[in-house]
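Bench notes, afternoon.
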Amino acid sequence: MKVNELQIKQNFNSMRPDKVGKTKPNQGQPAKSEKSGKASRPFNEVLNSKLSENSSLKFSSHAAKRIQQRQMDISPSQMTRLENGVGKAAEKGAKNSLVMVDNDAYIVSVKNKTVITAIPQSNTTGNVFTNIDSVTIT
């Protein structure tokens, strides 16, 4: 393969589809979606706003990224069970808890009512969870 072809291939592979054909937004102004014309928001903000409509839990940006990357779906009933698990941990004085919901694991800051990270069932086997003081299985 020629050097020019290799450089073109590397440049092509490093391009992000969400950035192709777009210009940088003005400083201080949110980017606008080309289709709807509405201001776009980061995934974690959208996730938190949708979940906070019916929830007392927040999701950190790290947790939101993990949920998106790992294609985890959280049903309303699972969300309720997660909230109940955090409530039970709070009643016992927990600070950082591992909450298991249908074999999916959520590390939660109980005091801040914030999900720190999420691990799907397929990734929980063989892991060691540190910096937690309780486990709640719902």
